[in-house]
Amino acid sequence: MTEFINSQFVKDMCDITRQSYDNGWDERNGGNMSIRITADELKDYNDVKEVRRTFDLGFDASAVAGQYFLVTATGRYFRNVFQRTKKDLGLVRISDDGKKGEIVWGYEDGALPTSEFPTHLMNHIARLKLDPNQRVVMHCHVTNLIAMSFTQPLDEKYFSKTIWKMQAESMPVLPEGLGIIPYETPGTTIIGKHTAAKITNGFRVVMWPHHGMFAVGDTPDECFGLIETVEKAATIFTAIQAQGGNRLDEITDKQLVEIAKYFHVTPRKGFLD
Ligand code: 13P
Ligand code: ZN
Fold it and tell me: Is the pTM for the entire model greater than 0.85?
């Protein structure tokens, strides 16, 4: 019988947390990640059958009752997940009434899921309504996008167009643009509610001003790919500013429309002139 630690889910989590740390996006305990897993996908793993501890979720998660989430622990470091896997990751089943998390694997030294777990769940639930293949939620502290949230107007159309114009291939990756919520205290359910409203509105990446980025996706690669594309655009923007800020040439709105047509994607309505 296979052990859960050897599953692709755990491998993906170790891989992405390590890469995100190496990119400089997860100082100390910054960032968190979750992967939704069905009961059927766990049937061959013997070591995830028993509930070891439970905790209150603090909101009604009955929309995902009976489903499982592999989640990074609160206060733990992305830098360490690949080595301290059974301590810094946990597998949580959502109880049948949707009120409790049931820990069935991991968090071996008494850890608990990320403080953003209610936010992750709210956004898994919101995205599942638009995309039944939704699997992954990731939050991290990307340097250049955070910096832009101090210097640029917090306007979704402005930010989305800026990201599209920084590199020719932002548009096919993120045609719906970037959602932005107001600044909120980390770990609160109000962040979760504001973010879920953006996810419901079709955004897959949401900026948390002065804090970081939040993204959803069908696979770890897709979710991470969204984050790195937005952060790459923000890095190019930062380099342009460092070179004096003058743009002698740039991708026009018309050229963005041509890129969208070529890649068969539809840019968010109202964002292009
Ligand atoms: P956790 O350690 O609870 O995951 O918090 C990190 C974080 O980035 C909160 O936004
Ligand atoms: Zn954070």
Answer: yes
